[in-house]
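# step 3/5: fold
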Amino acid sequence: MTTALEAKVAGLTPAEESQTLIMELAKTVKWGFIELGGLLCDNQDKAYWSRTGHESFKDFVETIGIGDYTWVTRLMDISRMVAKGIVTREQVLEIGVAKTVLLLPRAKKGQLTPELIELAKSCTWRELREELGGGSEALPAPEQFIRCPRCGQEFVFHDDMLRGRE
């Protein structure tokens, strides 16, 4: 019995077969990342991590060994965007996880437009980062928010709150 993937690569050159297999696997991995992010959100929201002997959600994440805490929380943020309907799973699959991470600050500010989503689908990571301001908008400044390592709650600081501390 031939699988759908085997049928898809039948008769292709080795280079075409390699590219097809890579694209199919990338799609599977992206889908898995979205699912993983959703499970981690659920774990954090229901504090399941605390029932497994971990001191904090961050400790729990670090024992899993899937990446550093910052990367995992960004993955969770993507899953939350999907859950809130800001983007669809299909859009994330088409855009890619790395480029969707660049869209997170705009999404958190309520500034993620359909035009920006379409741009993210059609350009490279580097082009998207440049379009978002060369990195200044792409990643939030460290002083803009902090995330509690126990519960994951974000505390946002506005510029007027930071004035007077200097």
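# step 4/5: annotate
DSSP finds nine helices and two strands in the chain.
# step 5/5: archive (pending)
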